[in-house]
Design brief:
By secondary structure, this protein is α/β, with parallel strands linked by helices. The strands form 5 sheets. It has a 5-stranded mixed β-sheet with strand order 7-1-2-14-13, with no helix packed on it. It has a 3-stranded mixed β-sheet with strand order 8-10-11. A two-stranded antiparallel ribbon has the order 3-4. A hairpin with an 8-residue loop joins β10 and β11. α7 packs parallel to α9 and α8 packs antiparallel against α17. It is elongated and about 95 Å long. It starts with 16 loop residues before the first strand and ends in a 10-residue tail after the last strand. The N terminus and C terminus are likely disordered.
Amino acid sequence: MATAPNVDEEAVTHPLLSTDHELYLRRSSTSNVTSQVAIVGANVCPIESLDYEMIENDFCKQDWRSRGKIEIVQYIFMKWTLCFLVGIIVSLLGFFNNLAVENIAGVKFVITSNMMLARRFWVAFAVFSVYNFVLTLIASTVTAYIAPAAAGSGIPEVKAYLNGVDAPGIFTLRTFVVKIVGSISAVSGSLLVGKAGPMVHTGACVAALLGQGGSKRYGLTWRWLRFFKNDRDRRDLVTCGSAAGITAAFRAPVGGVLFSLEEMASWWRSALLWRSFFTAAVVAIVLRGLIDVCLSGKCGLFGKGGLIMYDVASEEITYHLSDVLPVLLLGVIGGILGSVYNFLIDKVLRVYNLIHAKGPGYAILLACLISIFTSSLLFGLPWLATCRRCPADAAEACPTIGRSGNYKKFQCPPGYYNDLASLIFNTNDDAIRNLFSHYTDSEFHRSSVFIFFITCFFLSVFSYGIVVPAGLFVPVIVTGASYGRFVGMLVGSHSNLNQGLFAVLGSASLLGGSMRMTVSLCVILLELTNNLLLLPLIMLVLLISKTVADAFNGNIYDLIMKLKGFPYLEAHAEPYMRQLTVVDVVTGPLQFFHGIEKVKNIVHILQTTRHNGFPVIDEPPLSETPVLFGLILRAHIILLLKKKAFSPNPALIPANVSKQFSSADFGKKGLGNEDKIENIALTEEEMEMLIDLHPYTNASPYTVVETMSLAKALILFRQVGLRHMLVIPKISGRLCHF
């Protein structure tokens, strides 16, 4: 949770606590050993922690006491208003994302299909490849040169933030814009990447930008916004933004809320649940209205947009005990495949990191090579499939020319269609819709589905990690759907379940095996398929696949977080931690301040350490024995130095000095606006003056006794969302050794 820059790498796995003599400061200190954008080859940069704890110094206490009922109502009203704004903005962005992808990719497939109809196959391949190449070049260039933090899914970054880690650049306006442009370009360029992960990151960016508490640069200094200049409220808003992102990607409001609860947030409460649900509901309502507009044909090539991909609400699903065995087998194999998928991505990302370390030019070159390889496969593989005669009872036009559909003509003569092209020469959303479709058991040949499964499995592995915004949800869904449909073909008439249902269960099994979520994935799939009758089977598959995969490795997002160097505290303590006390793992020396401290000493400690919190100790004559007064943050000390809140008199600072400050001054600044000690200019005379730290110190920090078990301290540290924890001796008199 708590981090500080420029700390040696051993701090990641060894000491978690710091000490000097008998007083210890709990700090989880970690260096970003691979950088938060290691996968795109950025330089190592420091990671900061977030201060979720309420600061209780004299100014904040006075501010709370002075708040009337009107200000309290304003605060609550602004919380709900910001959630509403997040929902509106994210829903519009999600709709725009789908609309742009469907139209940009749709134009590409229409042009290519027209070339194919004219039997100009080489020209069609050239158009298809160049179109994809240009889109990939755009996505990789803007990502590599403008906002490297926008590369990848974004879910690991948001998850780390909600766990208390603030990596530079993950929520900036630049990252937000590049995430949108890059995601649209990458998905439209036929790369096997998803848009759900980028939508989660986009939703979190919207929430973080709105929750900065205003901006002096843009004149947004409304007094109401000052309430949100703290990490606690920003964290809550980012949680709502991540839920809105999943809702916008899949139109699954309940699934989005559960996804934030199960996978993203480390800290949850009922009030946050209500606001997350409200935000997701706003997204769902707005999307429903916008989709109704598109269904009237006013959105170009935008069709269903992948938001309800398998509508089986009117279908009566019946299954018997004999159907459970193939479903169990589906879950077991899905768990194994999911763990293999995670293993391969881990290895590929390590190799890509070596390439990206050479510079952005190499990263862009790698992305372009992957694009050329992908285009060659997508255009070349359908030639391996034989043309199939159009069914007489087809529910749609056969063959399908240009637009999305189940019966792609490709190179086939009139009256025939290419089943592999219907899957592979299509957008990911349309491919999933084709695989999920029911009453189409004879539509695809077994070999075509198997080729599509192998292609998706490895293309998704090699496509993730290049320098473009890329999600994993949709690639895993489409890969799992092809795997499930293939199993359904093998089972054939021995099961009462049709192949479309096997495709849905295959997606569930691979999602469970790779991402290791259960409740949220189950609800997301139910909202996608719009059929509650699938609930028992999806629950069974998810539980089995997750259990099997857990025996091999961790979930995909945790693996990526480890690769990116994000320190992350798990929710549970290891068994060996019960045998250790907090005093067993401390290290020193601890840097602390006296209640009245010389400016020179403060500046020296700030310049020679990167700690973000310092104990404040009172010693004689201020107290009979050394006593812990509280904890003061680095940012607050720099603020005192910046406003020159010191005096040559060792007595307490006069009242007029304290009047320079208000509680708003101790609020956290916006993203990237923190003051640094290097920017503070002080004279020799000022360096000899004294600062009374008492009014600015948090007098009630979380403290534990030295005999507390490490496991108990870890649970308290994570569940409360702490950045610092003070470890004090069991016998207070021992403080005299200071």
